[in-house]
Amino acid sequence: MVDEQEARRAWVARLAAPVAFFVAATVLIILVESGLNGGGSAATTSSLPTASTPTTTAGTTSGPKKKRIYRVRRGDTLESIAAKFNTTVDDLLQLNPNVDPLALSPGQKIRVS
């Protein structure tokens, strides 16, 4: 009877250790992803569309059109940015000759008009 109880405890311990490790690893991944997404819940942040407001450069009035600068957000492409501002990718590339369209990074500023 004692051997059977010891065997059962050993079996439970062998099962509980990997389960505890898996739970700890999952929690760690969720926390890291949450931190990378700006502190919000990972599911909530990634499933909601991000609304961004373009900023304009202060004091620049070289004609009727002001220079408008957009700060790239995670997931943005030149195509999506062009659609937000009713322009074309070619126009954005002309305004930003040093921008690599395949290597946009969050926080990068690009001119949109």
SSE string, helices as H and strands as E:
HHEEHHE
Any idea what the radius of gyration is?
25 Å
Q: What portion of the residues fall into strands of 2 or more residues? A: 5-15%
Question: What is the makeup of the main sheet?
Answer: 3 strands, antiparallel
Q: Using the alpha-carbon principal axes, give the shape.
A: rod-shaped
Q: Please give the share of residues in helix.
A: 40-55%
Give me the side-by-side strand order of the main sheet: 1-2-3
Number of domains: 2
How many strands appear in the DSSP assignment?
Answer: 3
Oligomer: single chain
What would CATH call the homologous superfamily of the largest domain? Answer: LysM domain
User: Which residue ranges are poorly predicted, with pLDDT under 50 across at least 5 consecutive positions?
Assistant: 40-49
Please describe what this structure looks like.
This protein is rod-shaped. Strands 1-2-3 form a 3-stranded antiparallel beta sheet, with no helix packed on it. The protein folds into 2 domains: 2-47; 55-111, Membrane-bound Lytic Murein Transglycosylase D, Chain A, CATH 3.10.350. The model is unreliable at 40-49 (pLDDT under 50). It contains 4 helices and 3 strands; from the N terminus they run H-H-E-E-H-H-E. With 113 residues, the chain is mainly alpha-helical.
